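dumping this here before i forget
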Amino acid sequence: MSENGRPDQDFNPPIPTSQSASSITVTQLLTGITEHRLIGDYRLLKKLGEGGMGQVWLAEQTAPMRRQVALKLIRAGMCDDTMLHRFQSERQSLAIMDHPSIAKIFDGGATPDGQPYFVMEYVPGLRITDYCDQKNSTFGSASSCLFKCAKGCSTRIRSRSCIAI
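structure:
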């Protein structure tokens, strides 16, 4: 990683090639299979978070370029029509967003077994509470940080997309 938190230009770990990505199901991915964790051109590296709708993974895009990204995947077994509509709405709103506090979307699709996903900018960082604690923030500086977050949230609420602080 470079000093600004972005991947170095020569970030080049090996890519597994012995098994096709289409031969691994999302259920296998989400239940502990750790080798060859590929979804299309994305290799899952580490789970970043999990919520009611799904999981967000740190992933490496392997083609046509290499970079770290965040990949959001609907939780296996939760893909009913309502959930699918919410996920697709989030993906579409994020695709048209342009705000410095909101991660940009790069790609989207579905796995071979039909689980929808989208790929967005990976922005490394801390939870806002951890950040404020680490900085021993005063009320004023914490308020300023929260105000920046609120501006992103305001845009997010209008579009139902993801925030990167």
